[in-house]
Amino acid sequence: MAFVSSGYNPDKPMENRISDIGPRKYDEFYPEVIKNNKGKWLYHDILEPGILVHVAESGDKIYTIRCGGARLMSTSLINEICDIADKHCDGHLRFTTRNNIEFMVDSEDKVKPLKEDLESRKFAGGSYKFPIGGTGAGITNIVHTQGWIHCHTPATDASGPVKAAMDVLFDDFKSMRLPAHLRVSLACCLNMCGAVHCSDIAILGYHRKPPLLDHEYLDKLCEIPLAIAACPTAAIKPSKVEFKGQEVKSVAVKDDRCMFCGNCYTMCPSMPLADKEGDGIVIMAGGKVSNRISAPKFSKVVVAFLPNEAPRWPQTTTVIKNMVDAYASNANKYERLGEWAERIGWERFFDICELDFTHHLIDDFRDPAYYTWRQTTNFKF
Amino acid sequence: MEQAEAAEMVVEALRKKLKSKSKFYFNDLSKILGMKPRAAKKYVNKMVEDGVLEYWSSGSTSMYGIPGTGKQAAAEHED
Amino acid sequence: MAKHDTPLLDQLESGPWPSFVSDLKQEAEKRAKNEAGHELQIPVDVVDDLLGILELSFKHGKTHWKHGGIVGVFGYGGGVIGRYCDQPELFPGVAHFHTMRIAQPGAKFYTSDYLRQLTDIWDRRGSGITNMHGSTGDIIFIGTTTPQLEEIYYEISHNMNQDLGGSGSNLRTPADCIGQARCEYACYDTQDLCYNLTMEYQDELHRPAFPYKFKFKFDGCPNGCVAAIARSDMSFIGTWKDDIRIDDEAVKAYVGGEFAPNGGAHADGDWGAFDIQKEIIALCPTGCMKYEDGKLEIDNRECTRCMHCINAMPRALRIGKETGCSILCGAKAPILDGAQMGSLVVPFVEVNADDDYQAIKDVIEPLWDWWMEEGKNRERLGETMKRLGFNALLEATGIAPVPQHVQEPRSNPYIFWKEEEVEGGWTRDIDEFRKDHQR
Q1: Does the pTM of the predicted model rise above 0.95?
Q2: Would the CB atoms of B57 and C168 count as touching at under 8 Å?
Q3: From A106's CA, which of A48, A191, A256, C222 has a CA 20 to 30 Å away?
């Protein structure tokens, strides 16, 4: 493969350089009916799971078909999405915040052929390419992070557990039987670059072993002050270590202060912390971001640890499925999972969801812990 | 302050600390220059453009250093 | 024929949900065939090796990636994340495998022409694997080599009028909800405000000078579809000041069962007939609504705009006309001291495109000055606020304290009075004191 220049001259990087131009302007990409009715929408209806109609003051309508998608996506699949958009939607489409793909058409007669086209497309392995759903009181796509496909500090995979969980939750993606919508998110380590801390159900990767120390190479590959400064709990200090009869500069980790974040590994490749037995999944529940009826809430830890069981994480998906089913049959209409748990009390939540309560679930991390203990005699047996 | 003077101040201060570390936060630079951060930024941007300084990133945090210094570049086999 | 056996990953090809494994496999085949006749600039078997290394991670229960310090293209301190694999001999195709962040357009509307230009570049110069989209909102190109970074940037900037997104201690690529483009709840034009601020602060986005990352997110209403209140250092959430607009006839239609509540969102549940007393009046968190003699009334002064009644009866109720946004500051994920929601800093501000959103920029810039000066390294705005106190933020931004700022007033009286707040100041004469008090 011969190198093909784009026109960039490495000797003169500033020559003809274009910078600070930002993203393309949003209105270049609006479908015509959006351009004409922006800011003048009257109401919407969900015609069936995954299919919405929005009606404007002008009487114009836009029909949206929402499809789930793996956010890890090849250019082949993106090109196929483009083909569909060209065929049915004058070349327009959009993605949602939760990695769904939305195809929009401007009249009802275009909905059926588009729907049939989308439902007919499957991968060679048999899964749907464009399952329709993810609207209303159901479960939409799981937002997630990179995991083992590309991250250096994950405690679990992302795409794998998400595929496994969505297969298990698929009926609720395709229907709207729940009391309210339910958002599932996954972050593959506690740094949460996909912020899962306000989700109805969060799947969180967690390490449980402090970093290994590669004393032989540590001082050669890393700047020790940076590794020390990277630690959020100040658990790392410089140390001199005997290695093969020689004294070498290295670090020492105060293991009981380590919160397993992997920030030291980011700064210093000689401090890896991944471990097959140590790493796994924390399940959190009851968060939300909407201000509807009650204020936004953080998710709470309901299962302290589940092992990584590639490729299908059966314990994780079973816990989630049981929680969804318990919520579906017990909560009131419009009640989010966290609102339900608060109404019945968390002690009852653990009962109904058949989850064990262990000491790990009582907060002992810094100031906010106190506010989570019970300071009343009102509780349920 | 002239750009050249600012660059000299920064390089001298960073070189002094090279023995222990090669990467510095933006705040360290504005302190060296004795300026408010937004004022210092104009000089620092130019130093990067002139090749006096280079960026380093952990992905979530960014740092600055003198080009070619530090240990990680060798570990990445990029040079 | 696949380059590596992937027995574990193969088990993720079955089941109804779209299989990323099947997708990766089709991409590996496409590259091997190279029917487009591209002069591929990175190894042809890059996707095979990506499958191979992922299979190894599934087997080992551990990642095989290392972080690299590479940051971006020349003059940029963000937009690229360095990645190297720790088994380069086994998987040479992904030995150097950096991420590029491409700034996404508002609300992620696209045309097929635009996306095909992107995929063409990424097929030639990268792995052909993307995230649509990353957590912050960017289009993510996963996997290319160092020499290709400048080439890709040159092509997207010259041929597509397209820039990179943010990473590191920068302003991160701002993100918005669909807003007025297709939503009747949107209280302001999220796309336009997002675009305006993104363009205004390009230098902050590309050249790191903050203590840590900084995120803007724009939600058109309190439903919060982009999770601004939970995820952004500064969130702009649409709201209104006047009355919810009521269409009495449409209310009757909901009560009579002509319209399905909540836009039909509960169609598959066994919830019985719509009951306005139970589902709307009783659930209103402020109790400011009543439905008597076939007429709905709202005491708007007592309404906190939670959106429940509007969500539940979208054809009957509409947001008010005097719209703007609330600004909340300091949200972040739990690391380190625990998660924080955004705290209300500006209860209401007009979102005014005519003066280039000056009122909003007048909040942003003093806030940045304060955080850049006072914030410790790797401290998010919310942590600086917590460490120095909410009053320090109000002082820095010149915003007057109002009861809306707090959930409740403080329950301790330990007020650190300043000298200038106390009549007569703190300098006193001991001899004067002794005139009335013996030793």
Answers
A1: yes
A2: yes
A3: C222
Per CB-CB distance under 8 Å, the chain C contacts of A289 are: 224, 227-230
- Taking CA atoms, what residue in A is nearest to C179? A39
Nearest to A95 among C40, C133, C224 (CB): C133
Smallest CA–CA distance, residue C265 to chain A, in Å, is 4
Domain that holds residue C376: 175-240+325-405
Please indicate whether, in this complex, the C-beta atoms of B26 and C203 are within 8 angstroms of each other: no
Considering the domain architecture, whether residues C118 and C205 belong to the same structural domain is answered as no
**In terms of domains, do C350 and C329 share one?**
yes
Which member of C114, C338, C377 has the closest CB to residue A29? C114
Q: Is residue C439 part of a domain?
A: no
Give me the phi and psi of C196, to 5 degrees please.
-60, -50
Task: Identify the CATH number of the domain in which residue B23 sits.
Answer: 1.10.10.10
Closest-approach residue (CA) in chain B for C368 = B38
Asked if C16 and C95 sit in the same domain, the reply is yes
ipTM associated with this complex: 0.97
Total domain count for chain C? 3
Q: What is the extent of the structural domain holding B28?
A: 3-76
Per-residue pLDDT in tens (0 to 9) along chain A, 381 residues:
799 999 999 999 999 999 999 999 999 999 999 999 999 999 999 999 999 999 999 999 999 999 999 999 999 999 999 999 999 999 999 999 999 999 999 999 999 999 999 999 999 999 999 999 999 999 999 999 999 999 999 999 999 999 999 999 999 999 999 999 999 999 999 988 877 999 999 999 999 999 999 999 999 989 999 899 999 999 999 999 999 999 999 999 999 999 999 999 988 999 999 999 999 999 999 999 999 999 999 999 999 999 999 999 999 999 999 999 999 999 999 999 999 999 999 999 999 999 999 999 999 988 789 999 999 999 999
Please report the residues numbered 1 through 30 in chain B whose beta carbons come closer than 8 angstroms to any beta carbon of chain C: 25-27
Angle between helices C381-388 and C390-397 (to 10 degrees): 110
Residues of A in contact with C142 (CB under 8 A): 72, 146, 149-150
Outline where DSSP puts E strands in chain A: 41-48, 51-56, 61-67, 72-74, 92-95, 101-105, 184-187, 201-206, 236-243, 246-253, 280-285, 300-307
Q: Domain end: C159, C189, C204, which one?
A: C159
Q: Do C27 and C62 sit in the same domain of this protein?
A: yes
Q: Do C184 and A64 touch (CB under 8 A)?
A: no
Nearest Cβ partner for B62 among C67, C203, C208 = C208
Q: Do B72 and A223 touch (CB under 8 A)?
A: yes
CATH number of the domain bearing residue C301: 3.30.70.20
